[in-house]
Write a structure and sequence with these properties.
183 residues; 3 helices; 10 strands; single chain; 5-stranded antiparallel beta sheet
Length: 183
């Protein structure tokens, strides 16, 4: 008799656990609010200019794997550094090509463009306010830009986004052109 009761209790426990797993799987997933700051800029003759910046939903990039001579610094409204990252020099492409000899060896090459456009994504960080780029070889400030207009535009389109609610009131619709200073 005790064995029958134990078996019955075990079956009940397994059934309850199974229903719990099914209920958890059937529950709606919480929305993903990860965002990127998408930046497009032009470069040429040592000058950089922001063409556009936009906040959009998406998985942010891992900035820790990037390398290069351009140092990027993301700061908050008080000027405190939130993140530092590095970018390769825009307009420089390196690779290898066949030499044309019978042994099919490869020779390195480098191609350079002196002007063009540069697109990159940054993770959206709490209190993110400004982006500054420096050339680490010379210490030259390349560009400093206020990124808050991109957030203002995003929050007009998505006022119930948790990050927009956390920032306070949704701003009125204004121009989405960034405050950019060329140096």
């Amino acid at each position: 008799m005790k064995a029958d009761r134990r078996a019955f209790l075990c079956v009940c426990l397994v059934a309850l656990a199974g229903f719990g797993i099914l209920a958890a799987a059937a529950a709606p997933a919480s929305p993903d609010y990860e965002k990127n700051l998408q930046i497009r800029m032009s470069y040429g003759e040592g000058n950089y200019r922001i063409i556009s910046q936009e906040v959009a939903y998406g998985t942010p990039p891992n900035l820790a794997i990037l390398t290069g001579p351009i140092k990027g610094v993301i700061t908050d409204g008080k000027g405190a550094e939130l993140e530092t990252f590095y970018l390769s020099e825009p307009g420089v492409a390196t690779g290898e090509s066949e030499t044309g000899s019978l042994d099919t060896s490869l020779a390195p090459y480098t191609e350079r463009r002196t002007s063009g456009e540069l697109d990159f994504n940054l993770p959206v960080l709490p209190d993110m306010q400004a982006l500054t780029l420096y050339d680490t070889r010379t210490g030259t400030l390349l560009i400093s830009s206020d990124v808050s207009p991109a957030f203002a535009t995003f929050c007009l389109d998505y006022p119930k986004d948790p990050d927009c609610l956390e920032r306070g009131t949704v701003p009125s619709r204004t121009s989405n052109l960034p405050d950019t200073r060329l140096v």
